[in-house]
Structure formats: C-alpha cells, structure tokens
C-alpha cells in the first residue's frame, strides 16, 4: 500500500473538486444547448444541403455507371432495338 503525505492528499481532493465543478458546468451548458431551439431551423437547412451535396457528388463521380444502368433498364422496357443513344 502506498502512503501519501497530507499535502498530496489535499492536492488530490482539490483536483477532484475542480473536476467535479467543471463537469457540473459542462453538464449545465449541455442541458442549455439541448433545450435551446433557436438554431434548429438553420441546422436542418445545413443538414439538407449536406445530403444534397453528397447525392450530387455521387451522381457526378458515378455518372457513367448510372447512365449505363439507365440505358440498360430503358432498353429492356422499350424494346432492345427501339432505344438509341449517342
């Protein structure tokens, strides 16, 4: 068993007290942020734009695969000889 001096014990308790106090402050700030809905609409708009940007990037990078799939599907629906592409 390790024995600590009294000054070390006091320092440990002071440090623990500071950590607990900081944790309570952080908890209060998180609760306030969670209950505040002032920026909710702006956040939703940003999230919608992010999803649209990801979809646009996928279409832009995979356009050849998407076009080939579309031509194959439309060719099957219309008839193999009736669908013309460039």
**Average pLDDT:** 77
Share in helix: over 70%
Rounded to the nearest angstrom, the distance between the terminal CA atoms is 83 Å
The largest sheet is: none
* Secondary-structure element pattern, one letter each: HHH
Shape: elongated
**Structural class by SSE content:** mainly alpha
Radius of gyration: 31 Å
Low-confidence stretches: none
Query: How many strand elements?
Result: 0
Number of helices: 3
What is the topological layout?
Blueprint: H1 6-35, H2 40-61, H3 63-78
3D structure, described in words:
By secondary structure, the protein is an all-alpha fold. The chain has three helices and no strands. It has helices at residues 6-35, 40-61, 63-78. The longest helix has 30 residues, at 6-35.
Key attributes of the depicted protein:
3 helices, 86 residues
Report a brief summary of the structure.
The protein has about 90 residues and is an all-alpha fold. It is built from 3 helices and no strands.
């Amino acid at each position: 068993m390790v024995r600590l001096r009294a000054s070390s014990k006091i320092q440990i308790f002071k440090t623990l007290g500071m950590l607990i106090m900081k944790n309570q402050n952080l908890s209060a700030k998180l609760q306030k942020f969670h209950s505040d809905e002032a920026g909710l609409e702006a956040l939703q708009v940003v999230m919608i734009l992010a999803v649209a940007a990801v979809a646009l990037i996928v279409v832009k990078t995979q356009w050849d695969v998407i076009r080939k799939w579309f031509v194959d599907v439309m060719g099957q629906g219309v008839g193999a000889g009736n669908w013309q592409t460039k």
